[in-house]
Amino acid sequence: MTAPASLAFSTDVRTHERDFCLARVRDMLRIRRLEERCAQLYGEQKIRGFLHLYIGEEAVAAGVMPSLRPQDNVVATYREHGHALLRGVSMKSIMAEMYGKQEGCSRGHGGSMHLFDRATHFYGGNAIVGGGLTLAVGLALADVQLQREGCVTACFFGEGAVAEGAFHESLNLAALWRLPVLFICENNLYAMGTALSRSQASLSLTAKAAAYGMATAHVNGMNVLAVHEAARAAVAQVREQRAPLFLELHTYRFRAHSMFDAELYREKREVEGWKQHGPIHTFTDRLKEAGMMDEADFALIDREAMQEVDEAVQFAEAGTWERAECLLDDVVAR
Amino acid sequence: MSRIGYREALREAHREALQRDPRVFLMGEDVGRYGGSYAVSKGLLAEFGEQRIRDTPLSELGFVGAGIGAALGGARPIVEIMTVNFSLLALDPIVNAAALYRHMSGGQFGVPVVIRMATGAGRQLAAQHSHSLENWYAHVPGLRVLAPATVEDARGMLWPALQDPDPVLIFEHAQLYNLEGELPEPFTSDISHAAVRREGRDVSIVTYGGCLPKVLDAAQALAADGISAEVIDLRVLRPLDDAAICASVRKTRRLLVVDEGWRSGSLAAEVMARVVEQVFYELDAPPARVCSQEVPIPYAKHMEEAALPQVGQIVAAAKGMLGR
Q: With CB atoms counted within 10 Å of each terminal CB, which end of chain B scores lower, N or C?
């Protein structure tokens, strides 16, 4: 397995403000601590159904989200806790959703895979691989039709979606109609248990996107600053040129696909190798080396993240169940 | 009252919607330059321009999904699919997104999209352009499914469909595009109720879409034999108007359903089940139905006719229920 791709952007931590860097540490730690607790709660059967953890991939959401504006749209997959959280959905409402409580961001109707939030333009939470892409094209189309200038739709999906027809139809339509969609491919190398090399005859994902006539870039998705620099440039380009762009982020999932996955398809050694590139510790190490962060800074951020998780769990525990008589509410508008 | 064709009535409905609401736009294969595969949108490109009359690639999954996304984002798209068989390429966004998002998001995100498509047989287009699969969509909670069978409904259903905050599918039977009829003034624009197309006493014949003209012909033939058939046009395939169906059956005490879909798991089966559940003791005869034969619709004219419900079968079935 190859190491993460070479960097296309300057990622010298000293070129960034200290506050910005610490905020990215906080973003990634909030996701990490939230999901570690989710895994624990899954073991306690507080959270049921499918649970797909983002652990290892936090630099992607943490790098991309700060480049978006409130009026932009975000479409994500079933591995979207981190995206929802960093887009601004409260950790409390996310945790309550996973508990199935009506205080959850989808009233307990969606669970882990279907987090939604109108206030932050967070359009889910789609558990059909590739399903979000056509919707993202449509959201951008709505912005064009309704003359909402300067909006971008950020669409996150895994490399597994590249095998779906929806990927190809969506990229073509977005390019044909010059729709402001940023396609963000989180290439973690495995579509559930199927390695990219076992599912694609041609391995260059950027070449496929480029074939539809759009700009492409790829970057080390384990490096939050690299992701951010790439995303910032990409979002600006989509916004200004009113045309789609394909961004591939090389990343890796440290945990199993879901809580039911025995991980028979990859070597422990490979996982351990990628953990050396873990997005949080590699970043904090560099910040410490540059004198921009010390152990006390980290401990404070971590303590705050843990406290937020504790409060989210308390909120979810105290949450209430929707009355069964409400079962059919919201199937159609009331 | 003015005389108008079904196709022209649809076109007028589009023109009205495009004029009244700037959020409305039409997208689909060949809706612009070509003028629509059934010429419904002919002339609209010149009138409204490329931004609002959008020709799409042959990409049903992509453009239907995009239409749904656009509705999610606040636009009011009308998505035209050439024929119901092609809509199967877009089942995912319709069933897995449009129908689910309001509920799955806890009531936050509605999908006010209108998806229109041709359905049905009778034009010797063979098995991949002739099926009646509207029943599949009528199975799905979250969707509203309409079947305009008159010029009045062709003219009147689109605007209220666009006002619905949830997804609406409109099935236009391919045999109806050349239909002509009287358009009343004002025309109705109701998308919730069935309609009594002919009053009668002896048997209720419930149908929809392309079978309505056949059923009306059959009712006329029955009248000549002294049998008074009431004809109910469902108009709305989901949610079904149980009250109208049951009210008619209470009056006539007999139910015959005519449905171009295949018999197994059909809308006809659903209508019969509801009548049996709700007004069983009012019935004087077992409910009956005339459906398509369970075969891919063949090309040869005589074989296609043999596969579809025909007036003679409807007349015979109604008479059979009356012991005649």
A: N
